[in-house]
Design brief:
438 residues, mainly alpha, globular
Length: 438
C-alpha cells in the first residue's frame, strides 16, 4: 500500500504543480482571448480531443495489465503499441479535419486546428509512460512532463504580458505536447535502450486491439458526450456563448485528475488481489469509491456558495454568466468520480463489452437532451444535459446488469460508509497491502 501512496503523491504533485502554474496562466489566457476567441479555441480543441481517443484505442488499462503480467515481453508490447498509436494518429487527424470542414467550411481556423493537432501525431513516442505506471514509478513521467510544462508556461505567460499575436499562443500549445512526448521517449531510451529495435509481434497487436476495442468504443462515446455539448453550442449558438460555457465547464472539470490518479494507483494492487482471489479485493474497491464520492460531494457543495464570487474574481464581467453553468455542472463530478472508480472493475472482471452499452446510453442521452435544450435553454440546458447523462451512464445503467450489481452496491455504500479509519491508515502508511488490519 506504501507504493500506492507514493505513486499517488507523485501523481497529485504533478497535477497540483500544473494547477498552481497552469491555472494562473489559463486565467490570464482566457481574459486575453475573451469569450469569442476562447470559444474558437474550445471548439477546435473539442474536435481534436474527440478523435485523439482513437490514438490509444482504449488500450491504457490493457497495456498496464499486460506489462504487469507479461514483463518478459515488455519491448515487444511497447513496439506494438508504438505502431498502433502511429497509425491511428494519422487516421484521427484526417477524421477531425473532415469534421471541422463539415461544421465550419469557411471559418478560417485550419491553421489553428493544425497546431492543436500536432501533439497527437507525436503521442506514439510517449507509450513508455505505461511502463512507469505499471512499475508505480510515475515520478519519472511527472518530472519530465512538468519540466516541459513549466518552461512552455513561462513562455506563454510572457507572450500574454507582451500581447503577442494569438497565433503564437497556439504554437506554444503544439510545442508543449511535442516536447513532453519526445522528452519521455529519449529518457527511456537512454535508460533502457530503444524498444523500436524489436519487431512488433502480430499476435500482440491483435491481442491489444481485440481486448481494447470495447474500451475504445466506450471511451470514444464518453469523449463524445463530454465534448458534444461544446461542439453543438459552437455550431448552434456561436463562439461567444461557447466561450462563456467553457469557462464554467473548465472550472468544474479541473479536479478530475483526483479520481484518475487514485484509480490508477489502486489498479496494480487490485490486479494482484484479484489474481490471488483475496477477500480484500472488493473491500479495496469500496474504499476507493467511498473516498472519491465524499471528495466530489464536498467540492460540489462548496461551489454552490462560492461559484459567483469565484468566476467574477478570476475572469471578470465578460464571463459572469459562467457561474450559473459551473453551479450545475459541478454536480456531474459525483457521477464522474464514481464512474472512474468503477472503471477498473470492468477490466478486471472482463466486462469491457458492457462499457460500450454504458457509454452509448450516456452519449445518446446527452445528444438528445442537447438537441432539444440548447435551442430552448441555451448553455444552461447543455449543463443540465451533461449532468443527467452522467447519472444515466455511471449509476442508472448498473441496475440493468446483474454482473454490475456489486458495483452498484459499492456506490450506495460509499454514500453511507466513509471508512475514515482505513483512509487514515493509508495516509499514515500503516495499512497492509492485503488489508488484514483494516
Amino acid at each position: 500500500m506504501k507504493a500506492i501512496l507514493l505513486n499517488s503523491l507523485w501523481f497529485f504533485f504533478d497535477k497540483v504543480f500544473k494547477l498552481a502554474i497552469g491555472f494562473t496562466v489559463s486565467v490570464l489566457l482566457i481574459r486575453y482571448f475573451g469569450p469569442e476567441w476562447f470559444g474558437k479555441y474550445n471548439f477546435l480543441n473539442s474536435i481534436v480531443v474527440l478523435f485523439s481517443v482513437l490514438i490509444s484505442f482504449g488500450s491504457e488499462g490493457i497495456l498496464i495489465k499486460l506489462l504487469v503480467s507479461e514483463k518478459e515481453n515488455k519491448n515487444e508490447i511497447l513496439a506494438a503499441t508504438f505502431w498502433i498509436h502511429t497509425g491511428f494518429s494519422f487516421i484521427a487527424f484526417i477524421a477531425s479535419f473532415f469534421v471541422l470542414y463539415v461544421l465550419r467550411p469557411d471559418s478560417g481556423l485550419y491553421s489553428y486546428f493544425f497546431l492543436l493537432s500536432l501533439p497527437s501525431i507525436f503521442r506514439c513516442f510517449s507509450v513508455v509512460r505505461y511502463v512507469y505506471e505499471a512499475l508505480l514509478q510515475i515520478k519519472v513521467v511527472v518530472i519530465i512532463e512538468n519540466s516541459v510544462f513549466f518552461s512552455i508556461s513561462l513562455i506563454r505567460f510572457l507572450m500574454i504580458i507582451y500581447e503577442y499575436p494569438i497565433e503564437y499562443i497556439f504554437v506554444s500549445f503544439a510545442l508543449e505536447g511535442i516536447f513532453a512526448s519526445l522528452g519521455l521517449f529519449f529518457y527511456y531510451r537512454i535508460q533502457n535502450g530503444s524498444f523500436l529495435n524489436y519487431k512488433p509481434k502480430l499476435n500482440i497487436i491483435k491481442k491489444i486491439l481485440y481486448d481494447s476495442f470495447p474500451i475504445f468504443v466506450s471511451s470514444f462515446a464518453v469523449i463524445v458526450y463530454m465534448k458534444v455539448d461544446q461542439i453543438m453550442i459552437g455550431t448552434m449558438l456561436g463562439d461567444s456563448h461557447l466561450g462563456i460555457y467553457s469557462v464554467g465547464v473548465r472550472l468544474s472539470e479541473f479536479w478530475y485528475f483526483i479520481p484518475i490518479g487514485l484509480s490508477s494507483s489502486f489498479f496494480p494492487i487490485l490486479i494482484q488481489l484479484k489474481k490471488e482471489i483475496s477477500n480484500q479485493y472488493l473491500n479495496r474497491f469500496l474504499l476507493l469509491h467511498s473516498i472519491l464520492f465524499w471528495i466530489a460531494f464536498t467540492g460540489a457543495v462548496m461551489i454552490q456558495f462560492s461559484g459567483n464570487v469565484l468566476v467574477s474574481y478570476l475572469y471578470g464581467i465578460n464571463f459572469e454568466n459562467s457561474a450559473a453553468v459551473l453551479k450545475i455542472h459541478i454536480w456531474t463530478a459525483i457521477f464522474v468520480f464514481l464512474g472512474v472508480a468503477g472503471s477498473n472493475y470492468f477490466i478486471l472482471e472482463n466486462l469491457q463489452k458492457l462499457t460500450v452499452y454504458k457509454s452509448l446510453i450516456g452519449l445518446f442521452t446527452n445528444i438528445i437532451l442537447n438537441f432539444f435544450w440548447i435551442p430552448t435553454f441555451g448553455i444552461i440546458g447543455a449543463a443540465y444535459a451533461t449532468l443527467i447523462s452522467q447519472f444515466c451512464a455511471n449509476t442508472l445503467f448498473l441496475i440493468f446488469f446483474k454482473q454490475l450489481h456489486p458495483l452498484l452496491k459499492m456506490q450506495f455504500n460509499s454514500l453511507i460508509h466513509f471508512r475514515f479509519n482505513a483512509f487514515k491508515l493509508i495516509l499514515m502508511k500503516r495499512i497492509n497491502v492485503y488489508g488484514k488490519n483494516d
